[in-house]
Amino acid sequence: MADSVFANVVRAPEDPILGVTVAYNKDQSPVKLNLGVGAYRTEEGKPLVLNVVRKAEQLLVNDPSRVKEYLPITGLADFNKLSAKLILGANSPAIQENRVTTVQCLSGTGSLRVGGEFLAKHYHEKTIYIPLPTWGNHPKIFTLAGLSVKTYRYYDPNTRGLDFSGLLEDLGNAPSGAIVLLHACAHNPTGVDPTSDQWEQIRQLMRSKGLLPFFDSAYQGFASGNLDSDAGSVRMFVADGGECVAAQSYAKNMGLYGERVGALSIVCKSADVAARVESQLKLVIRPMYSNPPLHGASIVANILKDGELYTEWTIEHFIYLLTGTPGDWSHIVKQIGMFTFTGLNTNQVAFMTKEYHVYMTSDGRISMAGLSLKTIPHLADAIHAAVTNVV
Ligand code: PLA
Description:
Elements: H1 18-26, E1 33-34, H2 51-61, H3 77-88, H4 93-96, E2 100-106, H5 107-122, E3 127-132, H6 137-145, E4 148-153, E5 155-156, E6 161-162, H7 164-172, E7 179-183, H8 196-208, E8 212-217, H9 227-230, H10 232-239, E9 244-249, E10 261-267, H11 271-289, H12 295-305, H13 307-321, H14 330-334, E11 339-341, H15 346-356, E12 358-359, E13 365-367, H16 376-389
Parallel strand pairs: 1-12, 3-4, 3-7, 7-8, 8-9
Antiparallel strand pairs: 2-10, 5-6, 9-10, 11-13
Helix pairs in contact: 2-12, 2-13, 3-12, 5-6, 5-11, 7-8, 8-10, 12-13, 15-16
The structure holds ligand PLA.
Residues 17, 37-38, 107-109, 135, 137, 183, 188, 216, 218, 249, 251, 257, 262 line the site of ligand PLA.
């Protein structure tokens, strides 16, 4: 047999986050626990679908007038309008003045990628600053989008809090016009967010240097439990009349992970600019995946536009935020969002996986949403053993 034409393809490593699920799926142990990917689970560790999502889905199924026609390149119009309102606020002047363009994209990741490619093509400064640390996919997304990626200091391991002076110093030294990736709330993986006063100082510094804010909003509702408060950082930057970019994901806050529902909004100075920006976004999207999927966006639109379902969503969502918070380490209580940055090192993580079948990313991040009352003792044992046996 002749060699494969692909014989020189080298094996790539598994993804640092999604690869944890691959390893977990292979484990046969009955006590195994997956705290890798940020996804809500029931007490039994099964994936959780919100009731309100089931209801909205049922409405779609029961409606025979619904067809499977292609969506426009920019996606479902209702979904886009409602998404802009969710992040910018119902009474946002920017929306009223028609100077926001919103396009439906493939969840948060797709929104970041489309936004990145648009900026690489049409924005004058090609450097994007991302926090250190950040979600592991950020540098890959923006590099492949054609931007050059640099970091700014964000987390201080000694205080397990924000390195605010480092952040201000690094953004202060960034070239004017550079793009800055900001986690709108519930920073992943650290769970550390700036206070409103700190956000205000960041805003002033960024505006004074003409730095372009690119918000990643993957956890709206997870930091405070309140959708509006969690969009406060974004709204602060819109209220000053300046421009910004925002990527939204419904993966976590509506539990729509696999439906891949998200939106990219670009807030511009005028309606005329927004229209031209949108025309170029279409040129980015069309050759990439032509147009986005219909089903998930229809679910979101149904929930967001219906008063009753909307209320149900906000309540149901909040209840799941309150499940399982183990440990009494003060940083765990202080850190917010879906994840806890435990401070466990790579060796301790490897030990916990090998000896206790507990799966998490090697940086020590655990997804709190993967825990339940039943599994907390097992995790506590595992952490105790790791901390006492492994340095
Ligand atoms: N932005 C941040 C900060 C994220 O944490 C994630 C997902 C995304 C964007 C993208 O999510 P989406 O494309 O599914 O909308 N982070 C997860 C999953 C939950 C992942 O890595 O893909 C995580 O476990 O970190």
